[in-house]
Design brief:
The protein is mostly helical. It has 23 helices and 7 strands.
Length: 488
Amino acid sequence: MPRDDMDDLFFSRDQKPLLREALPGDSSSFGILADTALRQTYLPSAHGKALQPDNIVVTGIRGSGKTFWWAALQNPEIRPLVEAAAQLGDNAVISVGYGVGRENAEKFPAAQTLAALAAKKIPPRHIWMTVVYGQVLGERAPSEFPRRGDWERRIRWVIDHPDLVSATLSAQDALLAKNNQYHLVLFDALDTTANDWKAMNRITRGVLQVGVEIRSYRKIRTKIFLRPDQLDDPEATSFNDASKITGNPAELEWKYKDLYGMLWHLLANDRGFGPNFRKVAESIAGVAFGENREIREVPNKLRSDPDAQRGLFHALTGPWMGRDRRRGAPYTWLPKHLGDNRGAVSPRSFLTALRTAAESGEYREDWKYPLHFEDIKAGVRQASLRRVRELNDDYPWIQTLMEPIGGMNVPCGRGEVFQRWKRNGALEAIGENPTRLPPAHLKDGPEKVLKDLQELGIVAERDDGRINIPDVYRVGYGLGRHGGIKRG
């Protein structure tokens, strides 16, 4: 393996345009576009396990891949990649129980319909059982079951015919077992079902109850994608046997090695940058990507060996985040500065930072690598701005809390934060102008609201009691830190 101060360069700065084009310009669509689906889809081993049928509840932070895998399982271009790792077999049936998309209007009730059904005191468990029943039975459902049209009428039918529902589901399960075939019903984006936590918790609880009930069948399963905070409230999880599916949920986590494995997959399968990248990677790591294959799979060594990954990445960036080792190594520096308070990194943030670094047109006479450390820092700033925009879309109230503390340096005392919130009437403003899913503990005061921010990964409490904000949020929200990445 080459030394970090190697003389022989495998990549040159002249290859920067090709590197830029190999990285997704809009990582929000990463892996979904039909013409690039397989070339832009990377499956970490932990994700393959999470997608296995018996892992009914799957959690992940914003951008970790929940909606991506929800869509990928429905995508015939991508699903063959998933089937083996997820132990689905090659003829699984995939249906949608809830998610974003107008094309699903007949498959599940919209948020407004859910609110109307709640007003009529219809338990959410019956709503979601009706959805699952309709998806699993399809044309095999009894002729009197209303397959389309008014949702209340469908739900009332299921409520009124419990024995028939059970018998027909059992018959369908037996048929699936005979064919060695799974039927998965996917649930995603449940946070869009309501504008307050109480209503959303009831809806989530109903989906989870159905997940437990359906678990008794051999080949019928639900798969429920949730944010970690959606499992925090006992109102969503306090029912008989809930722990069977919520006690140890599968997590869509991205370790450092997974992020770099994803990067190698993108670069190796790019038509422009790919051939040279594969040649260099094989030289550095002593591995082969294989010949004459539509999709070049990343060799295990480059998926899991940090030393091999480090050597390859530093062939793109140089060995240090400055002129010497005191500034740290790019391989660890980049994901570290993109992590939340638990160290969790969104692959979208990782790709945004690298694409931004590759887009820099600044020419540096003394730099021989495609990516300069200052460009990588600029990439982290851009990734932070994007991450903050995503957060504000999901939790508009966070901006109301962050604006009063803009310009502060962290770490800082919580008392100073609370004073600024009070001076600006931040908590009152959130209460007077309710937005989609306000802080879960808004009525319990600033300490509990700060805890809500901690649960979301935005704020961390240090051993000395002060609070800190990771760079991936700090920069985008306009806070400073002595010696840290500048705000821009």
